Amino acid sequence: MEKLLLLRQGSSITAEALGGTGNGGNIELNAQQIVAIPTENSDIVANAVGGNGGNINITSEGIFGLQVREQLTSLSDITASSQSGISGTINLNTLSFDPSQSLVELPSNLVDASEQITADCSAKTSNRFVVTGRGGIPDNPTEYLRGNAVWQDTRNLSGVNQSVEPISNYPQPSTNQQPQLVEAKGWFLDETGTVVLTAESFPEELPRVC
User: In terms of DSSP H, where are the helices of the chain?
Assistant: First the structure.
């Protein structure tokens, strides 16, 4: 079976007896689609003059633009007539198509959208959302995110009880000063033989060694 039989611009499929007592011929067509333009006078003809008209059998899923008529017209026709004899037969066998075979049965228990919402904490009267400063999501969705985000605490803390510890309670730095270092001007040996450097004077109980 051909997929498409297209008749355009005065095309015709004929088995016609144009004179005498001859009968019209038989035409059998098998195609998935038979298409013609109604106003282009494309015909399928099995007519006769003195004899009987022929038989036309068409098997197709769809016939478009052609119409069965008793005689030829200026439109696209299917005819099997006879001027003096008996007209022939025209059988159009369109394949039955059940659209319900392609339907999918939908579930009867549809999802309740209200059950898909997560219950969050209840909102308090003191909660609010405030847009301040720069940064975050840009006003225009076509712009890039900026890295200069600025955070500003806009809470009113005037009613909060704040206790500040006096500065006097904090530990103060030590004021003890280290003794000033001076250059050694003398030295002596102690009882263990260790050299001891002195600034000015020598101990009286130890002999001076210079």
Answer: none
What DSSP element (H or E) covers 57? Answer: strand 56-60
Per the listing, tokens 């405030």 go with: 130
Of 60, 95, 130, which closes a domain?
95
- φ and ψ of 114, to 5 deg: -65, -25
Q: Pick from 95, 111, 144: which residue ends a domain?
A: 95
Q: How many residues does the chain have?
A: 210
**Residues in Cβ contact with 64 at an 8 Å cutoff, skipping those fewer than 6 apart:** 33, 34, 35, 36
Q: Is 116 helix (H, G, I), strand (E, B) or coil?
A: helix
DSSP three-state, residue 68: strand
- End-to-end Cα distance, the chain: 134
* 145 part of a folded domain: no
The three-class DSSP label of residue 14 is: strand
Domain-located, residue 26: yes
For residue 43, the surrounding DSSP H or E stretch is strand 43-45
Residue 198 CB partners (closer than 8 Å, separation 6+): 184, 185, 186, 187, 188
Q: What is the pLDDT of residues 185-209, one digit of tens each?
A: 787 788 888 888 787 655 555 455 4
What pLDDT, in 10s, does the model give residues 105-159? 777 777 776 666 666 656 556 666 666 655 556 666 676 666 665 666 777 777 6
For CA atoms 157, 159, 165, 166, the dihedral sign is: positive
